[in-house]
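In this section we walk through a basic example: taking a raw amino acid sequence and producing a predicted 3D structure, encoded as discrete structure tokens. The instruction is simple. Fold the sequence below.
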Amino acid sequence: MDRRRLLGTAAAAAGAALVPGRAVAAGDGLAARVRPYLDRALAAGAPSAVFGVIRGARRHVAGAGQDGPAPDGRTVFQLGSIGKTLTATALARAVGAGTVRLDTPLRLPPGFTVPRGTTRRITLRDLATHSSGLPSLPVNLLDGADPYNPYAHYTLEDLAAGLPRTALHNEPGSTYAYSNLGFGLLGQALAFDGVDAMLRRRVAAPLGLRDTTTTLRPDMASRKAVGHMEGEAVPDWRDRVLSGAGTSIYSTADDMLRYLDAQLRPERSPLRDAIELTQRIHFTDPATGLRLGLGWHFGTLSDGRTVRWHNGGTYGFSTCAAFDRENGTAVMMMVNTYSDTTRPFDGLVFALLDELGS
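The resulting token sequence is shown next.
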């Protein structure tokens, strides 16, 4: 298994054939729209799947499983890189409070050598838009790593040792290059050695995301889905250093619908200004035209509508969230299996969001 390749791979988007499965669903006509996408997720190899949707004032959550009870809105999954948007929201709150600016250079405590370009330093905006030039992963991450839990062993001492050996692939602010290391460093820049507590205090708690956390409470453990890779159960990821990248965060479909509702209607949220700041375009890749907010990626649906989105994955879970503010629609998907190019779960989210806006 090429661990470095898998750690940097995003899921492709495509459809899959329908198969029957056990499902739990409630609500109005949204149930009939969601059900085929649950079937397709099972057909694509998910042991279980849950979708949450928002369409105007209506909400719907439904789950399906190959065997055993179907997941529901309270079933706990690892969230993966969607957690980057929480870190970006924490950055936006710090900007609003005046403690940092988006063009503030990345600073870490003494002993942590920050790589820099030949023309300028890495800024917090660069980190939050994947334009820092940093590699996807720390150069020494996989030294002695558990193949199925690659971040668990990594310490702040390892980070300090690896940073001086880290070369930038591009000049800061010049090119999009997805970087878990970059978002991990953003978390450390905002709250050194206290990232997880900062995200709970600054983002999850104000938004009422009680089950969005890196620490499983006993009641959450009893509701957690088991992650799978290639049909085998695998451990959850643990990460004490780069968790600002979303590597070890948990959540539920219910929590993520609350989060997406705040994205659709920031004016009703206690984090209005921060959310609005994350959703503005802060970087456009000159080579591809890809547009980035803080954390959020911008895309276009079939009829030209703008969608903001992020996916996530660990070796046991795959997730994707997307929303269309113009039509007041949002979709969240969680499955308990690793996603590669043969299991294109993300495409189901965009197809359903497209359908809900029609």
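Looking at the output, two observations stand out. Residues 9-27 have pLDDT under 50 and may be disordered. Residues 137 and 181 are 5 Å apart (CA to CA). In the next section we compare this with other chains.
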